[in-house]
From TrEMBL:
Localization annotation: Cell membrane
Location, primary (coarse class): membrane
InterPro entries: Cat_transpt (IPR003445)
Key word Transcription regulation present: no
Membrane-protein topology: Multi-pass membrane protein
Key word Transmembrane present: yes
Residue intervals passing through the bilayer: 21-43, 49-72, 81-101, 142-161, 189-210, 244-266, 278-296, 402-425, 458-479
Family, as annotated: Belongs to the TrkH potassium transport family.
Protein name: Cation transporter
Keywords: Cell membrane, Ion transport, Membrane, Transmembrane, Transmembrane helix, Transport
Length: 490
């Protein structure tokens, strides 16, 4: 029997009973999360939007409650975790779209908005936001907030599929069993919720004290800490008075782009934990470099030095953390500034954070591999050079996953970019739009709008979903052997 026959015989498709049981549990959580928008709709007298939210929640309860009683065997397979991850974001966005359709949005625009929300992207086809109710505007930010929490929880669950360096860094306490994915994830959820909730409360208080109104403070804090970027203003942060208030909003995004488990480790081990965390050290340094390059690229005619520095700071932090807030018209920036934003969005934030992009740790691993390749040329052929990064050993499988993910990211960007080029869009603006979607950032060159062709909206929707589940989970979802058991020949 060949190796391909062996792999075919050992391949185990997902168990539909397991998928239904855990997706139903997630559905109940989503139904409960509709309570804050429902309460706010009632308080604002937005009965139409409230009815849509109630109907969605009631439908989820009716469907999911019986399904959660299904018996499932203990343990869960790797492919089942990835399928549940992919389906949870897609189905949540689909359900969230229904109340938005009731508010007058077309089906594709409603789905675009909710996918952008739950994936914490921030691209939007909506205009005239001042005409929408406070309940709807809050609901958009609220989607990003709980989407960000789901992102972190699932990313940690996925990393527990192997015991690589990344998983060890993100562990908050002992990992009881390397194969007990759900058990390990459950043990982390409460800690993540406490950290995430505390950061959110502090962010709301900071923006309120900075002078923002209640709705503006709450929505920008929710979108900021989730690195989502939905604003209640058409021109995003440019509508907020006070340049340093805008910077404060982006600093909140920086807090969300830091690995949430790091806050736990800091509380246990103190500030010395930062010394061993490569990503935490690299994030502000990279952001500072991005700010500097943007400052040099900004046209001196846009304002004095302080104004340009403020613009560069907001845009640099927003791109690097993949938050997506903006205080300038991105379409009017120079080619150099756009390329800088594209590079920053591609790199993204830290693993275990709400940020998107390829992630800084993975770039550091690639840089380390390049360094080792150069060093090896000066060593004897029989010399053994161990691959390590900041004291952590880089396993061959972990390196392989990093390289595969980067290649898939680049391939997805190129294929999506070609679709926009075929429709006649400006190459650089189209590339920025596609990278923004794949990195779940939300900065727009003006291409994303209601009049955008439905096919291209669908491309960006797929890009946002792929970028949020980090591509590999979606590929497992699309893999035929995930769903059916193929026979083998002896």
């Amino acid at each position: 029997m060949s190796s391909s026959d062996v792999s075919r015989a050992l391949a185990q498709p997902v168990r539909y009973r397991v998928l239904a049981r855990y997706l139903a549990s997630i559905g109940l959580v989503v139904a409960a999360l509709r309570l804050p928008p429902i309460v706010l709709s009632w308080a604002c007298g937005d009965w139409h939007f409230m009815l849509g939210q109630i109907l969605v929640s009631a439908g989820l309860l009716l469907i999911c409650l019986p399904v959660t009683r299904i018996w499932v065997p203990e343990g869960i397979r790797d492919n089942e975790v990835m399928v549940i991850t992919s389906l949870s974001f897609a189905l949540t966005a689909l359900l969230e779209a229904l109340p938005f359709i009731g508010e007058g949005l077309s089906g594709i625009d409603a789905l675009f908005e909710t996918v952008s929300g739950v994936t914490t992207t921030g691209l939007s086809t909506l205009t005239g936001l001042q005409h929408y109710s406070a309940a709807l505007l809050f609901s958009r930010a609220w989607m990003q907030w709980y989407g960000g929490l789901g992102v972190v929880a699932f990313s940690i669950a996925l990393l527990f599929l192997d015991r690589g360096m990344a998983a060890r860094r993100l562990a908050m306490g002992d990992i009881t069993d390397s194969r007990d994915i759900l058990g390990n994830a459950r043990g982390h959820v409460l800690k993540l919720l406490l950290i995430y909730g505390s950061l959110t409360i502090v962010s709301i208080a900071a923006l309120w004290l900075a002078g923002l109104g209640p709705l503006s403070a709450v929505t920008h804090a929710l979108s900021g800490i989730s690195t989502g970027g939905f604003s209640i203003y058409d021109n995003s942060l440019a509508a907020i008075d006070g340049g340093w208030t805008r910077v404060l909003v982006c600093i909140i995004g920086m807090l969300g782009a830091v690995s949430l488990p790091l806050y736990y480790h800091l509380s246990k081990r103190g500030i010395k934990e930062l010394v061993t965390d490569s990503e935490a050290l690299a994030l502000p340094l990279i952001a500072a470099c991005v700010i500097g390059v943007l400052f040099l690229c900004l046209d001196s005619g846009t304002g004095d030095v302080i104004t340009r520095l403020n613009q560069a700071t907001v845009m640099g932090i927003s791109a690097q953390t993949t938050t997506g807030f903006a205080n300038v018209d991105v379409s009017g920036l120079s080619a150099g500034a756009k390329l800088t934003l594209i590079t920053a969005m591609t790199m993204g934030g830290s693993l275990g954070s709400t940020a998107g992009g390829i992630k800084i740790l993975r770039f550091l691993i690639v840089l380390r591999l390049i360094q080792l390749f150069i060093v090896r040329t000066a060593l004897p052929t029989h010399a053994v050079l161990e691959r390590r990064l900041r004291g952590g050993r880089l396993d061959a499988e972990e390196v392989e996953r990093v390289l595969i993910l980067i290649m898939i990211f680049i391939g997805t960007v190129l294929l999506s970019w070609f679709a926009f080029l075929a429709m006649g869009y400006d190459p650089l603006n189209a590339l920025l739009e596609v990278v923004s979607a794949c990195s779940t950032t939300g900065l727009s060159s003006g291409i994303t709008r209601t009049a955008l062709e439905p096919l291209l909206k669908a491309v960006l929707i797929l890009d946002m979903l792929l970028g949020r589940v980090e591509f590999l989970a979606m590929l497992v979802f699309l893999y035929p052997r995930t769903w059916i058991k193929l026979g083998s020949k002896s």
